[in-house]
Amino acid sequence: MENAILAKSKDFAIKAIKLYQHLCSEHKEYVLSRQFLRSGTSIGANVREAVNAYSKKEFAAKMGIALKEASETLYWLELFVETGYIKQEQFNSIYAESRELIRLLVSIVKSSKLEK
Questions:
Q1: d(Cα 94, Cα 53) in Å, to the nearest integer?
Q2: Selection from 36, 46, 54 nearest residue 109 by Cα
């Protein structure tokens, strides 16, 4: 069975890369978009590390970092739409996926704290 958070975070990273490419090519925006790229791709990297963690404590820590990165990513997306770098339609789609990732990560982090 496929791990949902692994798949969703990787899919999100791919969308983040594509949005970064769009921001660079269409708007010549390199500073904010790079921050977005880093946080958006870091979510999946930390989830992958968590899945392969040596301990429950390491697992919880990595998932916590992934949650923080997902929250930061939402911030950059809000800035992009509010400053006109992306259209509302682009924002709605990727924002919904960001919120879903955050819901999953919050649930995982909470349950991993209960398991201590």
A1: 28
A2: 46
**CATH code of the domain covering residue 75:** 1.20.1440.60
Count of domains for the chain? 1
Helices 56-82, 88-114: axis angle to 10 degrees equals 160
In sequence order, which residues have a C-beta less than 8 Å from that of residue 6 and are 6 or more positions away?
44, 47, 48, 51
- Tokens representing 60? 């919880």
Question: pLDDT digits over 24-38, tens only?
Answer: 999 998 899 999 999
User: What distance in Å separates the CA atoms of residue 11 and residue 44, rounded to the nearest whole number?
Assistant: 9
**Count of residues in the chain:** 116
83 is written with which tokens? 């400053």
Q: Which domain holds residue 105?
A: 4-114
Please count the CA atoms within 13 angstroms of the CA of 39 that sit on its side-chain side. 19
Radius of gyration of the chain (CA): 15
pLDDT (mean) for 77-99: 94
State the average pLDDT over residues 61-77. 97
